Amino acid sequence: MLDVFLKTGIYFLLVLAVVKPLGIYMKKVFSKERTFLDPVLVPLERLLYRVGGVNASKEQGFVAYAGSMMVFNVVSLVVLYAMERLQHLLPLNPDKMPAVPAALAWNTAVSFTTNTNWQAYSGESTMSLFTQMAGLAVHNFASAATGIAIAIAFVRGVARVESKGIGNFWSDLVRATLWVLLPLSLAGAVVLMSQGVIQNFKASETVTTLEGATQKIPQGPIASQEAIKELGTNGGGFFNANSAHPYENPTPFSNLVQMFLIFSVGAGLTYTLGSMTGKTRHGWAVFWSMSILFLVGALTAGFFEVRGNSIHHGLGVSTAMGNMEGKEVRFGPVDSALFATITTDASCGAVNSMHDSFTPLGGLVPLLNIQLGEIIFGGVGAGLYGMLLFVVLAVFIAGLMVGRTPEYLGKKIEAHEVKLAMLSVLILTFSILVGTALGVASKAGLSSLNNQGPHGLSEILYAFTSATGNNGSAFAGLNANSDFYNVALAIAMFFGRFLMIIPLLGIAGSLAAKKKVAESIGTFPVDGPVFVVLLIGVILIVGALTFFPALALGPIVEHLLMGAGKLF
After folding, report:
1. Which of 185, 240, 260, 309 could form a disulfide with 228 if both were Cys (CB 3.0 to 4.6 A apart)?
2. pLDDT for 118-176, tens place per residue?
3. Domain contains 197
4. pLDDT tens for residues 180-194?
């Protein structure tokens, strides 16, 4: 366990070190204050507005903002779908990949547009280099920038007073891409290439193995896609093995870099929240709420993976290496459990091990992380705006406790905002539980299972949880490349992304139009330990208890059976 504490602690300190500088930088970017990149990027920004016919200085209310966001994402979805269907006619296809089948192409287009990056296919054998680079990687930037834009719009709604606007979507989208994602991805790609992540446009290499057989080794622009895959909390890998593949993640240091990229922007946005609202202590309170949940999950997953399987103990199998099933020897159970916790905290979906092989309670941690709403740092932007929904609910409950109208940073929280917040929470719950019920109650859903019993239920539950939470990781024991899962999971991804965003923008617009009331002795403080405890309590009650019956029938029952020495 010392290794678990040590590696988790070092990683957390690295993330903590960038919260303030990155948060201040993003505050300057979206407040249009001067940054060191302005001389290069401002002319390019103006050119993009001119070509696109965008008036970036025009303020948008939440309806116009949401409309622009939906138009952009629908168009980009259609473009990616067409690219997949026509990839056999497009350039940079040295391995002559055929057109992607319609159902799979639709699922993938929705997946990458919604920042889910769920992959029901093997990337190296399905997508051409052009589709990988100009389609999937570009959508990694676009979907991540959309999430950041929504988070900033919500923060403006909290910060502004009697305003009809929450910003301009097109301006926020461009600035998130040019000022935040591109430079950080470029730096990340260079570091990853230094570790051996490849970057080329070659066709696959056919080589002779030591046994005398032949093997095809895929090539491609991997480092550039890998950097934005992690930084943008996308998760879609160039290879089917994702970050367990040595071309994507060759060394323990590259593994640390990838984990660091996953949390960096989400963590920095908490300080941006405090800076833009003038309440930095509140931003830190949100950060520590996320951090406590992360640390508990990481230590729990690490403990159960290092401890291993009790059935193995009874058979006399050595436990010196913990549970190595489904793990890369480069990383072992500790780095694998830490990576799994981080990627599911952050709605990333990248994996360096197979979650299907985790111990029951080790696998419960990533599953529960997603079911909490991906608010533990979360996807870039998505984590912050998801957490702010729970903040609204927490201050509402606090107001009920003291018998006065709830307030959040000087804005009265009324029935309208609470209804919209609960609508977003209920959409998440409905999509996960109803989707899982359809999966276990239909022949089409059960036909893709490789495991029966509680583990089989966990696989289906994880699939709909991951899709709705826009995570994209999988237990990997479920064949999701079927008509049923391609369609059902695509619907879950769409619901989990856009039906959550629209009510949230409604809250932002409502808060922006409100007057600010002065703090009084009865105002509930949102910047201290009491607020942190209340916020975590609301998250656990609303999130965790909602899914407890399903978890009890899946990983918890599996753990009890394992403890009884029963195989299934």
Report:
1. 185
2. 888 887 889 999 999 999 999 999 999 999 999 999 999 999 999 999 999 999 999 99
3. yes
4. 999 999 999 999 999
Structural domain contains residue 133: yes
Evaluate whether residue 423 is within a structural domain. Answer: no
CA atoms within 13 A on the CB side of 214: 4
What is the DSSP annotation of 233-284?
Answer: T----SSTTGGGSTTT--SHHHHHHHHHHHHHHHHHHHHHHHHHHT-HHHHH
- Please give the Cα distance from 242 to 354 (Å, whole number): 10
Question: b vs e for 52-63, b when ≥16 Cβ sit within 10 Å of the residue's Cβ?
Answer: eebebeeebbbe
- Report DSSP letters for 124-147, one per residue: HHHS-HHIIIIIIIHHHHHHHHHH
Is 335's pLDDT higher than 90?
A: yes
Q: How far apart are CA 254 and CA 296, in angstroms?
A: 24
Q: Are 523 and 405 in contact (CB under 8 A)?
A: no
- Considering only CA atoms, give the Rg of the chain: 23
Distance CA 90, CA 185 (A): 26
C-alpha span between 294 and 19 (Å, rounded) = 15
Structure pTM?
0.93
CA-nearest of 198, 330, 191, 337 to 264 is 191
Least reliable range by pLDDT among 259-268, 306-315, 352-361, 542-551: 306-315
**Within-domain flag for 347:** no
> In angstroms, how far is CA 369 from the centroid of its own chain?
10
Instruction: Give the Cα separation of 295 and 297 in Å (integer).
Output: 5
Range of the domain at 266: 21-208+215-277
Query: Can you tell me the distance from the alpha carbon of 534 to that of 199, in angstroms, rounded to the nearest whole number?
Result: 47
